């Protein structure tokens, strides 16, 4: 694992109004203070990239080391690490060594339909369940973090009384990818599985998969209710299955503007004596929150309790 993670940060605190009681020094309890922070960070792999065959590493960088925004130390109106580029995950599977067994677990022989017996299955049934790249469900989306981050915080501290102050703020930032990495596949091990979603299939007397029309036409008055006509049988299709998840990194939802967010609001801040740590009640409005995206949880408004400083 070879990565480099440079970052740059600038902070500015400037008193704007000290109050009429201030003389030769500024009283923090009576001084209005403007605070500003700007930061930028990037993470890049170098040398031989580590391949873990999992989503723990994205483009050769650890998922936990990539950039996310959200939380009381960055964008105050959003949940911690809730803002990041999303990548579509396509889930497929491969199968091999497919075979059929009856309800008693006896393996059926593969025979041409013209030579079918009560204990045989047609070759095309085996071929139908021997697949490569078959869909395993609808695609999902995963936040994978970004290789870059830009963040700006502005706040104005207004003392009210004693250790209590009111702090209006504006936070804005973006997490985005400067590089477009190739797609990444996560391949599981082949393992024995019952195919067709675990359900049994019905074979006709020729050993081929029966249609409902065939079953209905083969029924006679002597066929018991709910039973199969003579010559038809239920079997399970089994084989070795491998699940594959493909991360579409090349087309991940990224970009400086597409993953930008802003948060505007105010804090009631109480400075705890001795410890010199503020206790904060944060009220935030998030003007461009993605409230309609079912893959992320973002709210247009937020009320949060926090201890500590944003910067």
Secondary structural class = mainly beta
- Could you tell me the mean pLDDT? 92
User: In the CATH hierarchy, what is the architecture of the largest domain at level 2?
Assistant: Beta Barrel
Tell me the CATH topology of the largest domain: Porin
| Share of helical residues | under 10%
Q: Let me know the largest β-sheet.
A: 7 strands, antiparallel
Radius of gyration: 31 Å
Instruction: Please report the distance between the alpha carbons of the first and last residues.
Output: 30 Å
- Helical segment tally? 2
Q: What is the N-to-C succession of helices and strands?
A: EEEEEEEEEHEEEEEEEHEEEE
Strand content: 35-45%
CATH hierarchy, class of the largest domain = Mainly Beta
Domain count, please report it: 2
Unreliable stretches covering 5 or more consecutive residues? none
Query: How many E strands?
Result: 20
CATH superfamily heading of the largest domain:
membrane protein fhac: a member of the omp85/tpsb transporter family
């Amino acid at each position: 694992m070879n990565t480099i993670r440079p970052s740059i940060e600038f902070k500015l605190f400037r008193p704007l109004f000290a109050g009429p009681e201030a003389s030769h020094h500024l009283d923090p309890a009576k001084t209005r203070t403007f605070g500003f922070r700007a930061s930028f960070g990037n993470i890049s792999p170098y040398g031989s990239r580590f391949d873990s065959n999992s989503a723990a590493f994205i483009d050769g960088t650890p998922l936990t080391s990539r950039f996310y925004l959200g939380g009381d130390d960055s964008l105050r109106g959003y949940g911690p690490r809730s803002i990041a580029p999303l990548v579509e995950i396509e889930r497929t599977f491969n199968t091999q060594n497919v075979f059929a067994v009856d309800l008693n677990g006896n393996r059926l022989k593969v025979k041409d339909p013209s030579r079918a017996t009560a204990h045989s299955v047609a070759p095309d049934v085996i071929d139908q369940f021997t697949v490569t790249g078959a869909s395993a469900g609808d695609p999902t989306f995963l936040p994978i973090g970004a290789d870059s981050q830009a963040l700006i915080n502005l706040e104005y501290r207004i003392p009210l009384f004693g250790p209590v102050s009111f702090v209006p703020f504006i936070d804005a930032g973006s997490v985005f990818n400067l590089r477009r990495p190739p797609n990444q596949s996560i391949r599981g091990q082949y393992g024995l599985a019952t195919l067709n979603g675990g359900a049994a299939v019905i074979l006709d007397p020729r050993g081929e998969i029966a249609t409902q029309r065939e079953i209905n036409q083969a029924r006679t008055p002597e066929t018991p209710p709910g039973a199969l006509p003579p010559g038809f049988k239920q079997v399970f299709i089994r084989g070795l299955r491998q699940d594959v998840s493909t991360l579409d990194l090349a087309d991940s939802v990224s970009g400086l503007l597409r993953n930008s967010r802003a948060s505007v609001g105010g804090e009631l801040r109480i400075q705890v004596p001795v410890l010199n740590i503020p206790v904060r009640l944060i009220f935030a409005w998030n003007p461009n929150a993605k409230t309609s995206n079912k893959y992320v949880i973002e709210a247009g408004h937020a009320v949060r309790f926090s201890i500590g400083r944003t910067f």
